[in-house]
Design goal:
This protein is mainly α and about 160 residues long. It has a domain at about 1-95: Winged helix-like DNA-binding domain superfamily/Winged helix DNA-binding domain (Arc Repressor Mutant, subunit A). Helices cover about 65% and strands about 10% of the residues. The chain has helices at about 1-20, 25-35, 40-45, 50-65, 85-95, 95-105, 110-135; strands at about 40, 65-70, 80-85. Strands 1-3-2 form a 3-stranded antiparallel beta sheet.
Length: about 160
């Protein structure tokens, strides 16, 4: 599972490189695609990035033509971020080889086996969501009460 996850990250990095954007920007775009039309605040909440960092991400993606900002019809002060479908399709084409490879793998399984794999994937996803929330909960714990992981701090660049 770790190898597959790591390879997915590497594939995403390759897609981002071909698309000419940063991998973190591509990940944010993917979240936008999955979440739908959201505010920058919601995108920050989902990604764990600061609102300032999200502004930079959205600026870069907008400049590249991948997303656009849209004002809320009811409240003109509210701005939503949305994926531009035409450019999302261009990036989607970069995932076709991976999709074809996976379809070849899936074709060797029975419907019953596929249902089991789907259940495993869905339950695994829920487990990762719960584990992520628990880990993020450490951020709300005072540093002196956090587990001592013996992680060395990197020296600051000067």
């Amino acid at each position: 599972m770790r190898r597959s996850s790591a390879q997915g990250v590497l594939y995403g990095q390759a897609v981002a490189n071909v698309a000419g954007i940063a991998n973190s920007d591509l990940e944010c775009m993917d979240i936008l695609y999955l979440e739908g039309r959201v505010t920058a605040g919601r995108l920050a909440e989902v990604t764990g990035l600061t609102t300032g960092a999200i502004t930079g991400v959205v600026d870069r993606l907008e400049k590249a033509g991948f997303v656009r900002r849209e004002r809320d019809e009811a409240d003109r002060r509210k701005v939503f971020i949305t994926v531009v479908p035409e450019t999302a399709k261009r990036i989607g084409q970069l995932y076709v080889p991976m999709q074809q490879a996976m379809e070849k793998v899936f074709s060797a399984y029975t419907d019953e086996e596929l249902r089991l794999l789907l259940r495993f994937a869905n339950e695994g996803y829920e487990g990762v969501v719960a584990a992520t929330a628990a880990l993020k909960g450490l951020l709300d714990t005072p540093p002196e009460q956090r587990p001592d992981l013996k992680l060395k701090k990197r020296p600051r660049r000067t």
